[in-house]
Design goal:
Length: about 170
C-alpha cells in the first residue's frame, strides 16, 4: 500500500515538474516580450517530433542536443517574420497571431508525422529504475526533473533572471 502511495506521489511530482517547466517558459516569454503565446506548447511538441526524427541518425543524445537548437532556430525565424511586427500593439494581436500559428504548427506536424503518437526509445541507462523497490523512479525521470528544472533555474542566465531582486520604485 505504501508503495502505491509513493508511486502516485512521485508521478504527481514529476508531472508537476514538467508542467512547471512549460509554465516557466510561457511566463518568461510573456514577461520579456509582452506576447501572449498560444503556440508555446506547439513548439514543445515540435522539439519532440524533431528529436524523434533525428534520433535514428544522431542517436538519443545527439537528438537531445540538436532538436532544441533547431526548435529555437524555428522560433527565431517565427519571431523575426511574424511576432516582431506586433510588439507595440494591443496584446490581442499577439493572442490572435499565436493562436493561428498554433493551428498551423498542429496541422503541419499532423501532415508530416501523422495523427498518432510516436514512440521515442530511451537509452538503457536512463530506462533502468534507481532501485528494485522503487521501480517506478527511473534515471530518465530523475534526469529530466533534476537537470531540466533545478539546474536550468539555478545555473542559467535565463533561469536566474526571475530570482534577481526587482528594482523598487519606492527607493530614492
Amino acid at each position: 500500500m505504501a508503495q502505491v502511495i509513493l508511486f502516485n506521489v512521485t508521478n504527481g511530482l514529476i508531472i508537476g515538474a514538467f508542467y512547471v517547466l512549460m509554465a516557466l517558459g510561457l511566463s518568461l516569454i510573456l514577461n520579456l516580450s509582452n506576447v501572449i503565446n498560444f503556440a508555446h506548447g506547439n513548439f514543445l511538441a515540435l522539439g519532440g517530433y524533431l528529436a524523434f526524427t533525428l534520433s535514428p541518425v544522431l542517436g538519443y543524445w545527439g537528438a537531445l542536443l540538436i532538436s532544441p537548437l533547431l526548435t529555437a532556430l524555428i522560433g527565431v525565424v517565427v519571431e523575426r517574420l511574424m511576432i516582431r511586427r506586433i510588439y507595440n500593439r494591443d496584446p490581442v494581436y499577439s493572442l490572435l497571431l499565436t493562436f493561428g500559428l498554433a493551428f498551423v504548427l498542429q496541422d503541419g506536424a499532423r501532415y508530416i508525422w501523422g495523427p498518432n503518437s510516436l514512440p521515442m526509445g530511451l537509452p538503457a541507462v536512463l530506462a533502468q529504475p534507481i532501485t528494485s523497490t522503487l521501480f517506478f523512479i527511473t534515471w530518465y525521470r530523475v534526469f529530466v526533473t533534476v537537470i531540466g528544472l533545478f539546474a536550468f533555474q539555478r545555473h542559467s542566465r535565463v533561469g536566474l533572471r526571475p530570482f534577481a531582486p526587482a528594482p523598487s520604485i519606492w527607493k530614492r
